[in-house]
Amino acid sequence: MKLKLEPLQMEQVAVTYLDQLHHDLKEELTAHDNESYLDKDDVVDITRSVIAIEIIMKDLMDKDFYFQWKRENGVDL
């Protein structure tokens, strides 16, 4: 099957995927906070991934939508 997406559709797919990945990683960190089970290196890697996703989202999203998304979903370090 071959699927052709317009540039805006590709961007929306990327934003949707990154949003879900960001959510899942934050859930993993929250679960680890409740009951430590990750290695320190894994926590660092997950945290870096969450931050990287937030930086990418800032580039992909409209400024106003990004700030709303960040308020609702971003991490405070």
Number of domains: 1
Determine Rg (CA atoms, Å). Answer: 15 Å
How much of the sequence lies in strands comes to under 5%
Outline: globular
Please outline the major beta sheet: none
Q: Explain this structure to me?
A:
- The chain contains three helices and no strands.
- Helix 1 runs antiparallel to helix 2.
- It is globular.
- The termini are far apart.
Brief summary of the model shown:
The chain is mostly helical and 77 residues long. It has three helices and no strands.
Write a concise keyword list for the protein shown above.
77 residues; mainly alpha
Q: What layout of secondary structure does this protein have?
A:
Elements: H1 7-34, H2 40-60, H3 63-73
